[in-house]
Design brief:
517 residues, mainly beta, SH3 type barrels, 13-stranded mixed sheet, 8-stranded mixed sheet, 2 helices, 30 strands
Length: 517
């Protein structure tokens, strides 16, 4: 007799399944000394995974497929094969497996052939058990106060409640029930997702087999933790840089003592149908300078980077694990950069045709943005490929020796010897002001002239350096005809005025731009 309690999983059904050999390897697979290797890819955007994507809701766990990422699983284990054809069952596979990616190979006999392979996922559950016993006799128990009522009859329906027909032809409708009893576990139901192979070999005995497949609902990202120390002046400093890998496993399987690899680079995948499409994989990269400590070791791999953990690690299902990505770098020189971008955000664009409306772009943004800039080079204590990820910056408060958070940003993949620019926020004591002082359009000659004035004030007790950024957005053709300060051409439509503002001082920039079309 199989019993099932409403609202709970049924341990007796599991016991019977084990006795019957349903969904377990049984005598056909001797699971001696299995090994597991994982290569994880991520489709997470830089900045990690929002908790709402993987933390349970008040109504239960989220769908596994909500998690943006995937992994390739490689497992080796001992199996027993008979001469001729044998059936092999593997049960400890991920629930999010892509069955079209499964492969099985004997490492003992290269001539062994897989005749058929199946992925069985019709898992036993309360509803499926009830459905399997339609038109068969079952026993239903219902709690009524301190007593238990028992109903036995032929199960007619489970839709909207339990409908039974007793041996006298009467029909009973049972809304809520506490327990159900079945004479036996029906065939075809299994307790765990199972891979089944029909294998042919001439070599009987113990074989070392390798199984590989792809699973969804695994992802990883990088979190950088930086500590900023001020330098000799207000525009420089030093950084201590540390990085951690965060891995989420919701694939439906656990991976004990697994070899772990992470792939860095934009690995293309064939597009999925619209109703299944997820983000493109964004894998990450890093270098470990102390591989002997079991950290990550980086190497070039095709046009990507491969990062291998130098020790085994366990990734339980429904878990988040953090691993140090590389030893912390200390004393990395950095520069504090302030940028005044006087245009309002809505006008930070370019137009294909001349914009002759004098009021376009005249609204002023007064905030001055703060950035930290450092070069990812070896002589600065860095020089490793930095993966896309979230980067947090803190500063030590000497009053009580505590670290205080001062800003965070997301960075994209950054190769060695490239600069890293981190936006921290906006300055409190440095403000800007931008206004148009003159404007003229000559419709006969197809020309336009605009004069602008930018003021930047420093209320700090020390000098600061500021880059004043200006977009020449009104027309493709332009020329600066007058300017009170030196300027640099950043691109075809952007110029920079690098200025230094003394303590409690102000710098006023005026320039005139001539457009033609």
């Amino acid at each position: 007799m199989i019993e099932m309690t409403n609202g709970t999983f049924f341990s007796r059904a599991l016991c019977v399944a084990a006795v019957l050999g349903i969904g377990i390897a049984g005598a056909t697979a001797a699971e001696q000394g299995p090994t597991t290797a994982l290569t994880i890819y991520s489709s997470a955007e830089p900045g990690a995974i929002p908790p709402e994507l993987y933390k349970p809701t008040p109504y239960g766990p989220r769908e596994r497929s909500d998690l943006p990422g995937y992994a390739f699983v490689k497992q080796e284990r001992e199996v027993e094969l008979q001469q001729g054809r044998s059936t092999i069952r593997f049960t400890d596979v991920a629930a999010e497996i892509d069955p079209t990616t499964v492969s099985f190979a004997s490492l003992t006999d290269a001539n062994a052939r897989v005749l058929e392979q199946n992925y069985q996922f019709d898992l036993v559950s309360r509803d499926k058990l009830m459905e399997r016993y339609i038109d068969q006799v079952v026993t239903i128990e219902q709690v009524a106060g301190d007593t238990i009522q028992t109903f036995t009859g032929t199960l007619l329906s489970t839709s909207g409640g339990i409908i039974l027909k007793d041996d006298k032809g009467g029909v009973q409708v049972i809304g809520q029930y506490s327990n159900a009893k079945f004479p036996e576990l029906p065939g075809g139901l299994i307790t765990r997702p199972t891979l089944v192979w029909d294998v042919a070999t001439e070599k009987a005995g113990t074989h070392r087999a390798r199984v590989t497949y792809q699973t969804g609902s695994m992802t990883w990202w990088t979190d950088y933790n930086l500590t900023f120390t001020e330098g000799r002046d207000a525009n420089s400093g030093l950084l201590d840089v540390g990085a951690w890998v965060s891995i989420i496993n919701r694939s439906g399987a656990s991976y004990p003592d697994a070899k772990l690899k992470l792939v860095a680079g934009e690995v293309h995948r064939a597009p999925k149908p619209a109703y299944m499409r997820r983000g493109m994989p964004t894998a990450l990269a890093m270098d470990a300078k102390e591989a002997g400590m079991g950290g990550f070791e980086e190497k070039a791999f095709f046009e990507y980077h491969l990062y291998t953990l130098g020790r085994a690690t366990t990734l339980p299902d429904n878990s988040t694990k953090q691993i140090e990505l590389f030893p912390a770098a200390h004393g990395v020189p950095c520069e504090k950069v302030m940028v005044y971008y006087g245009l309002q955000e809505g006008f930070r664009t370019f137009f294909a045709s001349p914009m002759t409306d004098r009021n376009i772009g005249t609204e002023c943004n007064k905030k001055v943005d703060i950035y930290l800039k450092f070069k990812n080079e070896e002589k600065a204590g860095m020089g490793m490929p930095l993966p896309a990820g979230r980067i947090r910056v803190s500063k030590l408060d000497p009053a009580d020796q505590t670290l205080e958070f001062i800003g965070e940003d997301a960075i994209d993949h950054t190769p060695k010897d490239e600069q890293v620019l981190i936006k921290l926020g906006t300055a409190f004591d440095v403000v800007g002001e931008r206004k148009q002082t003159d404007f003229a359009v000559d419709t006969h000659r197809d020309t336009m002239d605009e004069t602008l004035e930018i003021k930047v004030r420093n209320h700090k007790s020390e000098p600061v350096k500021v880059i004043v950024k200006e977009n020449l957005y009104r027309c493709l053709n332009w020329k600066i005809v007058e300017a009170t300060h030196e300027w640099e051409k950043a691109d075809s439509r952007t110029i920079h005025f690098p200025i230094t503002i003394e303590k409690d001082g102000e710098v006023v920039i005026q320039y005139k731009v001539h457009y033609w079309w």
